[in-house]
Amino acid sequence: MLKEIINKIKGSKYNKFIKLIFHLGFIISILVKVFYVQYSGKYNLPPFNQEVNNRMLWATFFTILILYSIIQIISFNKTELVLLISNILISILFLADVLYSRYYGMPLGINIILTQMGVVGDISSSVITLIRIKDIIFLIDIPIFIVVLIVISKTKKINWITKISISVSLFIIGVLGFRYIYKDVNHVIYNYERRSIVKDLGVLYYHYYDVKDYIKVEFSRDKSLSEEEYALITDYFYEQTVNEFTGIAKDMNILVIQLEAMQEFVINRTIEGQAITPNINSLIEESIYFNNLYNQVGSGNTSDAEMILNNSLFGYGTGSTYFMFPNNYFSSLGNKLKDNGYETMMFHAYEPSFWNRINIYRNLGFNRFYNIRDYEMTEKKGWSLSDKEFFRQSLDFIEEQANGNPFYGHLITLSTHHPYDAFIHDDFNVGKYQGSMLGNFIKGANYADQAIGLFLEELKERGLYDNTLIVMYGDHSALFEDQASNLFDYLGTDYSHFKWEKLQKVTGLIHIPNDKRKILVDDPAGKIDLLPTIANLMNLEMPYMLGRDTLSDTENPFVIRRNGTLITNEYLYSSQTGSVYDINTGEKLPIDLYREVILGKQEKLRVSDLILKKDAIRQIIKNGD
């Protein structure tokens, strides 16, 4: 029956009209899918008639015209088939963009596609939780295009000269129209804040920009720093100062514990009458505690957190540093302590190839990387070995490897990895949040706290606690913004984007043995500031850091997140909304009064990227500075 209908339509006099509809349908289909990406990813926000939204739609329309005209020119007599294939590929890319942005807040980049797609299989359980029924919009039109292509397959082709003339005309219209839009946007910020590209000019142009930038980075890898770049970078390095804390942990062992997805909102909180993190709460009472330590990871996620802590640099803006720059020279904590005679060890009970760890840890100064192949799977929790067993076995490795020498151990936990379904049947009572993502995360946080408590007791029993500096921090956020309703209900407040931005804090503390003081660092800080603080406590000279010592007096302290969001003691700038808010009241402030200051502080992101892509620290050391 369907075949007969198709054959009848094939011979219809309306074939040329149907063919025209096919071509217009391609443009409309891509435009609708871009619209969905823009708003589902919250790159653009209602109301739809805002200037920035209108600009994005026009820029996208002109970008599609350029793409369409190029396809027309290069496809010869197979234009409709190439349009269909292009639609399918773009739809798959946009679907990947949406899923990726729900996790990381950004579309995919070419670096991620080329270097990190092997990670996808390992995080498949997390990916599945990100899919929504409405995402079918990316594929629902494809069968229709296939049927229409069959119908018009025998339609007479238009004259080649006519086709070229139309294509060139559309290309010129697209280029001129896009340039008209482009001249009115602040594209300087695109060097370090990629969300703005999507918001201003659309996700389709973002992918063009990203590929162009990738090619430029690849060609600049081996180029020397210009005098201007050299001066810019060295001007940004933190100048270490002496204060009352300098050297009080000198020559001590150091253990850095990176807690998977441990956000600050569970600390010192209860649910159903139970403390969620009683062991961490107790440790805080005799530690340096960071009350406003913000998440700073980018698309490198957990690997970015390690990178930031060990180097006081940001992860690269459009991909994982671990994949892109594994052969760089890093002036890292591991390298510094190794030079000082420490045994340096990294611990993570997972595959060594994940995030390319096996290839970069040597350059980060770690003598030994203990991974899943070194551990016995005595108890599984979540993705791999349970945190409790991970800590116990890691201490055995530490004592064996250190053999009485001072040591630096960096331990990366894993049990509390998204989507936290390993904890759904745990006994910890989360009340009405049972079975929800929030409830499972809170159970996971309680489990991680139990593991920490056992670990601290084991350190004491083995005689290591009193001579070991303990650094503890969460690597990244735990929940996505579309899951905020339960979180705000638990916190007893109404949702607002401003409040959501303020919640993007992770757990952070430094415990100095035999020092019973509780020191609260209330100024906004980030993981990039932990290494300068550690270096001061251990009296380490480390001249190539972008963060600051949080225990030194700093005028107008601020923290910049990898996405360009800025937090100070007075205001918060959200790169997602492009708005400035009073830090205490959430009242919107006039952006024009802060724009120049915000751009100046965001430059630190560009400097960090420049250091990585030019392997700048190697060049600076070579020049004797």
TrEMBL record:
Its main location: membrane. The chain crosses the membrane at residues 20-36, 56-74, 81-100, 136-152, 164-182. Keywords: Cell membrane, Manganese, Membrane, Metal-binding, Transferase, Transmembrane, Transmembrane helix. It comes from the Bacteria. InterPro entries: Alkaline_phosphatase_core_sf, LtaS-like, OpgB/LTA_synthase_biosynth, Sulfatase_N. Mn(2+) binds at residues 260, 302, 475-476. Residues 253-539 form the Sulfatase N-terminal domain. One of its GO terms (molecular function) is metal ion binding. Substrate binds at residue 417. It is a multi-pass membrane protein. GO terms for cellular component: plasma membrane. Pfam families: Sulfatase. Pathway: Cell wall biogenesis; lipoteichoic acid biosynthesis. It is found in: Cell membrane. The active site is at 302. Belongs to the LTA synthase family. This is Phosphoglycerol transferase MdoB-like AlkP superfamily enzyme. The lineage of its organism: Bacteria, Bacillati, Bacillota, Clostridia, Lachnospirales.
